[in-house]
């Protein structure tokens, strides 16, 4: 394990008040979003859309790294240049999602477990060989009646830790993503309690598996009320609760926290991240950044609609959302930017 390289890559992923672009949707998820806009659900359509993203002019001004899925990391743009090379040439660090998705957890109704540890060591070596420098694994935690259970939290935390240890062994920085879902009517206080419990368990397992915190990135949810909760706290209250929770559970040695958007609108995700940096940037032990998917991509996808003539306008929309989030990393995002 090259500890120096891992630390340098992890720092580079959150350097200069920039974040990560998640473009690693599974094929079924991508197809679902295409179907809603009347876009053909084909491999070629997915390739064309990912080409639109990786060739967006100026994207590296706001984005340090891009998370790809297995299909995308092997694809090329029209002229035959591999996407991974396009990203590297643009100054964007390529990464890869390596989990195989969430499944129903046996014996735990309403709860999920992430699969993909079998054969992971060899897959990681293959991705590292073609140029990936980091990886991602997502665990899903649901808040509901009697859940999450201790068994679900511990099983997912153990899988995250084993994945992270394998990543560091082959020289890839692991993004550790324990997502407490926004679905449901739970309060922000309930989300705080569950998120803290999940993060404490995850970092205990990471320690047990000898994962080096300086060579990893945490990708958590923000501490939010459920989507159907009658009380929806202010942007500032969410920022305070989120950072308070993280300070209780995340080691200062972790170089960066790149939040998932988790179904938030692009504008709201930017505003909440901005509030965290306005209020805590000067005293936060870690960089507070982003690793958004829909919150960056959705406006561009809605403009593109599978039509070549819309590529430039879609790229401009993508770049705009990326710039808004980079501004939020500096604590300089304003709602007025949305009219630009």
Describe it for me?
- This protein is an alpha/beta fold and 340 residues long.
- The protein has one domain (3-339): Aldolase class I (TIM Barrel), CATH 3.20.20.
- 47% of the residues lie in helices and 14% in strands.
- The protein contains 12 helices and 10 strands.
- It has helices spanning 3-13, 27-36, 43-54, 70-73, 83-90, 120-130, 150-170, 188-208, 235-249, 266-280, 294-304, 311-330; strands at 19-22, 63-68, 93-97, 102-104, 112-114, 134-141, 173-180, 217-218, 256-259, 287-292.
- An 8-stranded parallel beta sheet has the order 8-7-6-3-2-1-10-9.
- The model has no long low-confidence stretch (mean pLDDT 96).
- Principal-axes geometry comes out as globular
How many domains?
Answer: 1
End-to-end C-alpha gap = 46 Å
The CATH class name reads Alpha Beta
Mean of residue pLDDT values = 96
Number of DSSP-assigned strands: 10
Strand fraction equals 5-15%
Strand arrangement in the largest pleated sheet? 8-7-6-3-2-1-10-9
**CATH topology-level fold name:** TIM Barrel
What CATH architecture do you see?
Alpha-Beta Barrel
The value of Rg in angstroms is 19 Å
Instruction: Give the % helix.
Output: 40-55%
Secondary-structure content class:
alpha/beta
SSE ordering: HEHHEHHEEEHEHEHEHEHEHH
Helical segment count: 12
CATH superfamily: Aldolase class I
Q: Largest sheet, described in full? A: 8 strands, parallel
| Low-confidence region ranges | none
